[in-house]
Structure formats: C-alpha cells, structure tokens
Write the structure tokens for this entry.
Amino acid sequence: MLVRAKVVVLFGLMALAVSLFPDACMADCVPSSCGNLTIDYPFRLRSDPKECGSPWYELVCENNRTTLPLKHSTYQNFLVEEISDENSTVRVVDASLDRNKCSIPYYPFLKFLCWPYQNGPSFRNITENSIMYVLNCNMPISSSLYVDASNCTNSPSSLHTYFFLFNNQTKLSDFNESCRIEAQYPVMLSSISGLSASDIYLQMLMGFELKYWGWFRYNDVEFCSSLSLLKKM
C-alpha cells in the first residue's frame, strides 16, 4: 500500500509539472508550420511527434491549409485562419462555405457549440455567443431582426427564408412561430439590423472564434439552454 501511495504521488507531481511548465517538458519540440500559420503548444499537427503538443488540440495540414477536424461525422472540417496565443483564441471558417456565392451549410451546430469539442477542457465558442439562423417561414415577416436570405437557399418559393441572429440580447419572443430552423452558424456579429444577406454572408466567411484552455461559464450554459428551447419552438 505504501509503494502504491508513493507511485500515485509521483504521477501526481509529474502531471502538475507538465501543466505548470509545458515548455520545459517539451524542450525537444519545435514549432511546426502550415501555410502562413505557426503551430506551437498547446497545438500540434497530426504529423508531429506524439510528445509534442496536446492531443486535445491536434490540427491537420493539407495542401498548406490548416484544418481543425471534428470527431462528429455530421460536421465538416474547419479551416484555421488565425491562432492568437495572447488571447488563447483560434479563428476558424467552415470549409464547406462557397466563397463565390451565398450557400448555407445545412447541418446542426448546437452540440458542437454547447459541449466540449473533445473529452476535456478544449474549445468553447466565444463569438459574442451569436448564432445566425436560417429560417423558413410560412409568411413574410417585417422586422429589422429578420433579413431576407432567399438568394442563399434552395427552399421552395412558397416559403420565406430569413437570416435571424440569436445572442444574449435576443428574447425568445422575437422568434416568429411561423418559422422553422433550417441551419445555424456562429458569426462575429452583435446585430444584423441594416445589413443585407450579402453583408451577413461575408461575415460568415470571416469565421468565428473559439477559446482554448477554457471551461464553460455560467452564461454559456444559460445561452445553450435558450438555444435548446428555441430549437423546440
């Protein structure tokens, strides 16, 4: 029992040392590069030695483009546009977005946004907790909260398609019950009032920021609870 206790203490001290002094523990690791990005701790490329970087933050370099792969098969990969060590953020863009025309990806983001990316304190969405919804509505809506997005979808002409921004300032009562959610996407916007569909799509092409080294905060949980309620409406 005494030997087992010593082993447990030893491994505990080793884990503490790795978390407090990662650079010292990875003295033989040098930063990688992909395109114009430098990949350094805690990030790693899949081709890097296993002892370099964290498996929670593994990236892939293909054709000089850095991608953030997602484990869930219903999600596409994301292109990594920027990594900020100072802010502990990474800006990513959905690789499936068409840069030549407005075309919305049709798959759910809720689970990705509201749960850790992998099993650990990895990524969380910090883009002002703003989600852009694509809605199909049974009737026309006259409101600055709704922007005509009919040119961005292949929805039947009998339906009215809109962009609708949901964030911490949005009330659930702002959501028109004649509408159905077709897609959702994180954006770096706090308001869409006065914007056109093209303006909004250009912002979507800028991507959104994720915080790494972050656990969920209370307002994140509250926001995700509101998203769940909105999805059920």
